[in-house]
Amino acid sequence: MYVPKYIYVISAVISNFITYVLSLSVLFGIMFVLNVKFTVFILFASLPILILIVMTIGAGLIMATINVFFRDMQHLYGVFCTMLMYAMPIFYPADIVPPRFKIFQIYNPLLQIINALRDCFLYGKLYEPFSIYYSAICAVILFVIGLLLFYKYQDKFILYV
Q1: Of 8, 88, 139, 150, which one has the greatest count of Cβ atoms within 10 A?
Q2: CA nearest 132: which of 157, 109, 158, 155?
Q3: Per-position b or e across 60-96, b if 16+ CB within 10 A of its CB
Q4: Are the C-beta atoms of 156 and 71 separated by less than 8 Å?
Q5: Is the pTM of this model over 0.70?
Q6: 10 Å Cβ neighbour count for 56?
Q7: How is the chain split into domains, by residue range?
Q8: How far is residue 66 from each of residues 14, 16, 85, 154, measured CA to CA in Å?
Q9: pLDDT tens-digit profile of 95-133?
Q10: Cα dihedral sign for 129, 130, 133, 139?
Q11: Shortest CA distance to 53 belongs to which of 139, 144, 146?
């Protein structure tokens, strides 16, 4: 029985999305306990989440292709994700980043999505359109590159597995 190869990437992303949706129930519980107002803008958080899913599928297709040919990339990818998490102001305020590194924050599409989700959930306001447009364009570009790369090399996967 033939199964398209991209299904494995999409299934990994969808399973993590389901985990994310379940963790949102915990977030809503914490918001309720801390007396954070539930606003209509929480519904607008679905657009940044959708953009994040598209971006993740694109990155997953790229990493799946690279990982077939270079097995060490799975370990380097974990290190890269850890560095990316600590480089973005998730656990610390964005104000402490030196001005010469602010350009990396402004043009980081993941940080734009995180800030949009913060605006919706935490601050009860609508995100800035620039952040969503920029992140959406980056997500589509990453998705197209992932598709092209995956389909170009998918016939060679069997030779390297």
Answers
A1: 139
A2: 109
A3: bbbbbbbbbeeeebeeeeeeeeeeeeeebbeeeeeee
A4: no
A5: yes
A6: 22
A7: 6-160
A8: 21, 21, 22, 11
A9: 888 888 888 888 889 999 999 998 998 888 999 998 899
A10: negative
A11: 139
